[in-house]
Amino acid sequence: QSIMISDRLRASAAGAPRALIFLLGAAVFLNYVDRGAVGIAAPLMQGDLGLSATEFGLVASAFFWIYGPVQLIVGWLCDRFNVYRLMTIALLLWAVATLLMGFAGGFLSLLVLRVMLGVGESIAFPGTSKIISEQVPAERRGMANAVVSLGIALGPAAGTLAGGLILANWGWRAIFIVFGLLTLIWLLPWREATRGLEPAKGAERPPSVAMGSLFKRWPLWSMSIAHVASNYGFYFLLIWLPVYLVRSRGLSIGDMTLLATIGYAAQAAAAIAFGVWSDRWTRPGRPEAAIRRWMMVVTQIVQGGAILGVLLAGSTAAIGFWLVVAGICTGALSLNIYAVAQMFAGPRPAGRWIGVQNAFGNRFSGIVGPVLAGVIVDAAGYDGAFYVAAAVAIAGGLWWTIGVPEIRQVDWTAGQG
Q: By CB atoms within 10 Å of each CB, which of 141, 158, 225, 248 scores lowest?
């Protein structure tokens, strides 16, 4: 009888999952601090390096040129090899890329380093989902993903707050240097926490799910489309909000930093609240699938309205209100997009499933989105870019009602399902 690696890991890691999940949340936190640094630096970096809005959009999207596609490989690696070691290597790569951006001399060097950052950060969600699928039971899935979602929210919040202060006092280059060094520090506790989690030599691996079988499953593609919609509005605000508030609304860097941080703080609080609520809902035996689907429907549509609210707001206070609403919605979206994927995939192909889903979702929302917004801003101003982002979010809510099938684990022993 086969001995599943997930069973060995659970047995050898008694008491470890809490520390492990905390560090995974910290890794995602650093992931978003580092990838969002370019947006925080933009108000001064664009002028200093002579970047047009289109060039800045290309630099921002360059991260996703490789970040999305390489996850097809990274997801397979997470299922095939030691995911804990892979996390170590990837964190080292993206920390160095972030640090070196502080020494960039122009468009080309920024472009290359953003691509390098994308390679390193591509481990984040295939790796975390693989570990959660192996280590965390269904009744605690909401909270585990909430901790990861907390990192998604607090990363931009802390990054915007700290980055804005650094920008105002020491310039844009210091942002990348400080953030890169902080990411390197994460490697120390991670090394200690995962020391005993390597599978024993000679342990049999679970039967593999072929990529061809994975690609034939409609739930994977339906979730990949849903991922585009859930990410588009978030990335739009992450990349373009700082420069929009400073250049179009005339706010100071300090006011911009405060408003953006409030929105991300609301996102963080909402992620934890929704995680606790969804676990409590599921624990007595109520259907987990239903609550996650309808959380996605409602929050996608409301997120679209909030993006329009930011554009149409007549005062700074109104902008802050709509950013809080957008943050609350994003907290639910980031939690459930991965929790539902884990439900569909199960532990065996979780790394590859998330790799494909993230690759597809980020290819459009991360690669096309920033460039499209940059082109629209250069051609017609910010209004059109906001309208497109809102429309994508609302369409995503509708997609969850008609495009995502019944949420249950795929039967990997069947032919095509």
A: 248
Amino acid identity at 324: V
Distances (CA, A) of 3 to 15, 80, 200: 21, 15, 11
Q: Which two tokens stand for residue 275?
A: 């995680």
**What pTM did the predictor assign?**
0.72
CA distance 111 to 61: 9
- Per-residue model confidence as pLDDT tens digits over 312-368: 998 989 999 999 999 999 988 888 888 888 888 877 787 888 888 887 877 777 677
**Is the separation of the CB atoms in 99 and 176 below 8 Å?**
yes
What span, in angstroms and rounded, lies between the C-alpha atoms of 278 and 162?
32
C-alpha span between 303 and 301 (Å, rounded):
5
pLDDT tens digit string along 50-65? Answer: 888 778 878 877 887 7
Q: Report the interhelical angle of 316-345 vs 141-170 (nearest 10°).
A: 140
Look up residue 141 and give its two tokens: 């899935």
Distance CA 66, CA 63 (A): 6
CA proximity to 176, closest of 79, 248, 94: 94
Positive or negative: CA dihedral 201, 204, 207, 212: positive
Contact 114, 63 (CB under 8 A): yes
